[in-house]
Specification:
Layout: H1 4-12, H2 19-22, E1 30-31, E2 37-41, H3 46-51, H4 58-69, E3 78-81, H5 95-112, E4 116-120, H6 122-128, H7 135-138, E5 143-145, E6 148-153, H8 156-161, H9 165-190
Parallel strand pairs: 2-3, 2-4, 4-6
Antiparallel strand pairs: 1-3, 5-6
The structure holds uracil (URA) and iron/sulfur cluster.
Uracil binds near residues 41, 44, 55 and 81.
């Protein structure tokens, strides 16, 4: 078991995969360590590589808008990525890079103990939920695994490319909020 600070130190010095050769700054997950919901995206983009903070670019604006729509500020939740270093040219992270980086995500999950995990986009959904997950067809559906709700929504960058996806994402976020509220009420009764 590691603290957040210890994990961040490991990530900041990590050379477990080739992305360490081209990254500017590793991007450790960030937010409320007591968040009931853990958001997992794919990999840092260009902006995030510059400043070392998740979702600070244009995708982050969309992400914050979706969060605000269900009454959350960024610092109330925790958000991280499957790989912590920016893949050059924004390519998909390779399987071996994901494999090298996944222990950090496992430790983040142990630390936060979320009631729900929300995958942002296909790469995270295929890594976390099922290798053949189809984001277009399956986004917004829920699955209970080891007492944690799993779901996936469109990646904010997919919404930037196609604004018609925003309404679907808003509906998925509303369902996320509803389910979280139920979880929190159950918590209140069992504690
Ligand atoms: N896109 C991602 O998948 N993650 C970030 O942190 C920023 C953009
Ligand atoms: Fe290490 Fe992950 Fe960065 Fe690869 S992507 S160097 S495994 S922190």
């Amino acid at each position: 078991m590691y603290t957040y600070e210890e994990l961040k130190c490991f990530v900041d010095r990590c050379r477990r995969c080739a992305l360490s050769e081209t990254r500017k700054h590793p991007v450790m997950g960030r937010g409320n360590l007591k968040s009931p919901v853990l958001f997992i995206a794919e990999a840092p983009g260009n902006n995030e590589d510059q400043d070392g903070i998740p979702f600070t670019g244009r995708s982050g604006v969309i992400f914050d808008r979706l969060l605000a729509g269900i009454g959350f500020k960024r610092d109330e939740i925790y958000v991280t990525n499957i790989v912590k270093c920016h893949p050059p040219g924004n390519r998909d992270p390779e399987a071996k890079e994901q494999e090298a980086c996944i222990p950090y995500l496992k430790y983040e999950t142990i630390l936060i103990r979320p009631r729900m995990i929300v995958c942002l986009g296909r790469i995270a959904a295929q890594r976390i939920i099922r290798p053949d997950y189809r984001i277009t067809r399956e986004h917004g559906s829920f699955l209970l695994r080891k007492n944690v709700w799993l779901t996936a929504v469109y990646h904010p960058s997919a919404i930037l490319r196609d604004e018609s996806k925003m309404a679907e994402a808003e509906a998925d976020f509303a369902a996320i909020r509803e389910k979280l509220d139920v979880c929190m009420r159950e918590n209140a009764f069992t504690q």
